[in-house]
Amino acid sequence: MDNDGTNGRKFSDYCNEWLGAKKPVVKISSYCKYERIVRLHLIPFFEEWELGEISEQEINSFSMLLSYNLHLSDKSIRDILSVLSSVLRYAYKLNHSNKSLPTIHYPKLSQKETRVLSIREQNILLDYLTNDMDECKFGVFLAMITGMRIGEVCALRWADISIEEGIIYVNSSLQRVESFSPNDRGKTQLVLGKPKSVCSQRSIPLTRRGLELCRKMYPESDEYFVLTGSEHYMEPRTLQYKLKKYTDDCGLSGVHFHTLRHTFATRCVETGFEIKTLSEVLGHADVNITMRRYMHCSMEFKKKNMEKLNSLGL
Asked: What is the SS3 assignment for 202?
């Protein structure tokens, strides 16, 4: 007899089992995200439904609810539908169902214009950071010359920097995530753990200028955090505030920490960086991610390349 995957169990049961299976194998930040999606969206909508009742049409209705009633962004809806898809795959596999999974239609993401510092803006900020440099300014400087993520910079200790080799070893990340403890609903916690993915654990060679400043800023203990020069870390939110002050002082607007990463990748592309190398420096698993998200050419670079057409009389 064909198994249609319908055995009378509620979808909410599968959600909770799926979370239990995920908890030991994903980062705590990922688990917190999954748990929140299940608790706030999947269970309230599908709680009393049986597995076989969830069809393409019902998922479309759920998606429309997220968009038109809750006014969630396309990115948030995609994340929720992705978790729904994972739970359904888990449930169908658990029941050895030979039915096809219901089709899920994901909203298309609009391409947002990414803020990238011009060379002039980049030099203004670099000059500001290196003038009367302290530990926090130094950390921001490192982000500008390595493309490190904010959580990776916050977690960076001097033990992760080999001055002898001229290499930064990215081994940790500091994140603020929502607590999943029933007693701490709505509260957040800081988690110092592994970076975003396996590929995010990487080695980044330092530039000559970066190595010189590392020698200058090296503290008395290599167990100190780079951003504070002490055994206490600085959380990402505080670093964002610091960067806002720095960029305000420089007269730069619309600059977030991820702007530094985009700017670094753009400069690398403009100077002829080999894309596979850039992908590894940024900690990407796939060069397509690098090409799709971070290959932004400045207007100066575009003009320089367009001038090459002059020789053709165009």
From this structure: strand
